[in-house]
Design brief:
The protein has 621 residues and is an alpha+beta fold. It has eleven helices and 35 strands. The strands form eight sheets. Strands 1, 3, 4, 6, 7, 8, 9, 10, 23, 24 and 25 form an eleven-stranded mixed beta sheet that branches.
Length: 621
């Protein structure tokens, strides 16, 4: 719990804004703007940071100088003109010099553990990684953190690494193989900004207000924050605070007697008159006995507190606090149970030089923080993988000024048990990220889940099969969104398969066709329609190249069912862009499924270019 609290506190403000008074003012930069970074080519690029309000900032890059000035919040920003690829370059920002900066294509790699799988795990399978020697590909991994509060900067500690042997072991595997493939195919420097967390659910990556609309049955983050917020400190204690909307009650009284059904904090305010003769004098404040703990303020000045219910409250009002005319006493009363209040038949008064001011009578009050609300908030964010919107706040939102070539999203394992929500969540998240990153056409490539778990003898259903379908549907229905098929690249007994090289090759093929505009087939064959004729199902697919075929032997993993919805294995024959599916056990077919299982081991329908066909079903059962 303490670790989470430290994360919340340390990320609340950039370091530049936490400097002690009198310290030398310096420009500070976000965690990802540092030596060896890659910035996006052929597009305006924002460089930003923090400084003292009004401070002038100068950015020099490729012999062009850009200037800015810190605003009232100490924030500044410049926009570099679109840059041609190349480097290394220097970037000078006031007294800061960034070295070895490249201009190329910057990718955002996100998701969960298969995105995060580090390169060390795969060197046995791909020993060539050990002698990697490419300084034109770069990798930056955003440090892990979560917070219920939106952050301005990513967690500290990230470092840009190049693709040379001495640094490559700090890379993640998928990012390495994609960067290597993209650079070999384009000759353009490649930057991989990796922001992911193993085990994370998609809900942790979605903006709080949007997530609340998508899942209204769940406790909304804003409700947790509002319940945990102590709105009164520094506000309710001020003399000129308008408490006209507060309710009235008679003091002394207990909450139950006053009709206050609450556990937690109740704020009280009482106005009283001070004659000119007592203005500025030291005085004493008696608040009888309160249940449970309290903090007392006079005219906004803290005068005393007691942490539990039994001791009598005798507080001193320092000289200079009381003023002629109207004065305000504010009391913050906390009770973890609904029995709080001001105990009757006690003294509630201010005493000054023999004058006693009775405080009994009408007071104003309002409800504050609920008991345990802060603990509930911290408990909800103690598990980074499930903290709703927590990773969006800390590991995506601070990247809002970055310009990316595209996003590679590899996630879904943690949501397989909730596959029925995933299409809606993924489509919404993509739109959310595009809005956050300021690019409504930002390309997304969704990596479909690979095969996993023991292969079944008979046709089956499964959460991973349904999740793959949700991934595909989200990509099909969301503009500039694509997906890759990987059910032949997994390992039945390991949720973290090592062959990230071929996963990356398929991501690159999708990017080459859909983002770079190259004439190549980067799309998996995809189901389009079914026709029933003479007891056979004729399946038509798109993106088949010169025609469909079996990768090896006869076609496998086709299942067929009649009106009874009982699937059996079927015979299948590829002809051009069609597959004819039949079974002697199903005389009147109604539905066909292909590669429909958590582990569709043996599924082998591919295009002429060798792209595996996307799993599909013709039914909606």
């Amino acid at each position: 719990m303490k670790a989470i609290n430290r994360i919340i506190a340390s990320l609340a403000l950039p370091a530049a804004l936490l400097s002690p008074a009198g310290a030398e003012a310096k420009v500070t930069l976000p965690g990802m703007i540092t030596d060896k970074m890659v910035i996006q080519r052929d597009a305006p690029v924002k460089i930003w940071g923090w400084c003292e309000p009004g401070e002038k900032v100068s950015v020099r890059f490729r012999d062009v100088i850009y200037t800015a000035q810190g605003d009232g919040k100490g924030e500044w920003q410049v926009a570099l003109q679109p840059q041609t690829p190349g480097g290394p370059f220097l970037m000078e920002i006031n007294d800061i010099t960034l070295r070895d900066v490249l201009v190329g294509d910057l990718w955002l790699m996100s998701g969960q553990s298969n995105q995060e799988l580090d390169i060390k795990r795969v060197t046995g399978l791909f020993p060539e990684v050990n002698v990697s020697d490419n300084n034109k590909i770069r990798h930056f991994k955003v440090p892990k953190a979560t917070s219920p509060y939106p952050q301005k900067d990513i967690p500290q500690g990230g470092v840009w690494r190049s693709g040379v042997a001495s640094e490559v072991m700090d890379w993640t595997a998928l990012a390495y193989f994609l960067a290597k493939e993209a650079y070999e195919q384009t000759g353009v420097p490649q930057g991989m900004l990796v922001s992911c967390l193993g085990g994370s659910s998609i809900e942790t990556w979605i903006e709080p207000e949007l997530l609340s609309r998508l899942q209204p049955e769940q406790v909304a983050l804003k409700d947790l924050l509002e319940a945990a917020a102590d709105k009164g400190e520094g506000t309710y204690t001020l003399t000129d605070f308008d408490d006209s909307a507060w309710k009235s009650t008679t003091i002394p009284s207990m909450w139950t007697d006053a009709g206050i059904d609450h556990k937690g904090t109740v704020w009280y305010r009482k106005t009283f008159q001070i004659p000119d003769s007592l203005a500025g004098r030291q005085a004493s404040l008696d608040l009888g006995t309160l249940v449970d703990s309290d903090r007392a303020y006079v005219n906004g000045i803290f005068v005393g507190m007691t942490p539990y219910q039994y001791p009598p409250r005798h507080y001193s009002i320092p000289a200079g606090v009381l003023r002629e005319g109207v004065n305000v006493l504010s009391v913050k009363l906390d009770s973890p149970w609904p029995g709080g209040g001001f105990i009757p038949d006690k003294d509630y008064r201010i005493s000054c030089d023999g004058t006693v001011i009775d405080l009994k009578g009408e007071w104003k009050y309002t409800l504050g923080r609920e008991a345990g609300a802060l603990q509930k908030l911290n408990a909800a964010y103690s598990n980074q993988m499930e903290a709703r919107s927590g990773l969006y706040n800390t590991m995506l939102l601070p990247l809002a000024n970055c310009n990316f070539k595209g996003v590679v999203w590899y996630q879904g394992e943690s949501n397989a048990g909730r596959w029925n929500e995933y299409e809606k969540l993924l489509s919404a998240m993509i739109g959310n990220w595009r809005e956050t990153l300021g690019d409504s056409n930002l390309p997304f490539i969704v990596v479909q889940l690979p095969n996993f778990m023991k292969a079944q003898t008979d046709p089956t259903d499964g959460g991973w099969a349904r999740l793959r379908e949700a991934q595909m549907k989200a990509a099909q229905k969301t503009p500039h969104t694509y997906y890759t098929v990987n059910y032949d690249l997994g390992e039945w007994n390991d949720i973290h398969p090592l062959n990230k090289k071929d996963v990356a090759k398929r991501v690159w093929k999708s990017a080459a066709e859909n983002i770079y505009g190259k004439k190549t087939e980067g799309h998996a064959p995809q189901y389009e329609s079914m026709q029933i004729k003479d007891g056979k199902a004729i399946i038509t697919l798109s993106h088949t190249g010169k025609g469909l075929k079996a990768r090896d032997g006869r076609l496998r993993h086709f299942a067929i069912a009649g009106a009874d919805r009982k699937f059996v294995w079927a015979d299948a024959v590829a002809k051009g862009n069609k597959v004819i599916v039949s079974s002697d056990l199903v005389k009147e077919p109604v539905a066909v499924r292909y590669a429909w299982a958590d582990n569709p081991e043996g599924a082998n329908l591919v295009s002429s270019e060798g792209m595996p066909a996307a799993p599909f079903r013709t039914d909606d059962w």
